[in-house]
Design goal:
Layout lengths: L3 H11 L16 E7 L2 E9 L2 E10 L2 E12 L8 H9 L14 E3 L2 E10 L2 E10 L2 E12 L1
Antiparallel strand pairs: 1-2, 2-3, 3-4, 4-8, 5-6, 6-7, 7-8
Amino acid sequence: METVIPFLIKAKKNCYAAGMIPVSSTRKNSKDLHYSEGDLRYLDSYFGAERFLGQEVVWKKDREVWGMNYYGCLLEDAIPEDFPEFLRQALSRLDEQNPYRGKDGYREGDFSYHCSWTGSFEQFRGEEYVTFGGSRIYEMYFHGGIL
């Protein structure tokens, strides 16, 4: 796993957090983000937009080694237009101690990002949410581990 965590961080920073445009779908109507480096491959595949469901998987030498499922939603009808950019910035702040999503406590203007989790890379679960002006406008739940 020592090579998987740094790879996963790089993949996440280069996919959704970087604003990557989804590529060819692996499942009907899914939005897919791919990243690979050497013998490691990453896929983030999700459905929906305001309410979404997805899965991230890492393969090493064509064998699945790690995965994470997630479900999230926007909680308000009128979300500030700069919310997607704020979320991408928050998600680009992950590190080896928190390779799942962004670091807890990121703030920019009226936005605030929060993320908490329990467990370890081998088996974990957690949640993230964003507030705007003190009101929760987005939340997501995730869980996963080594396969």
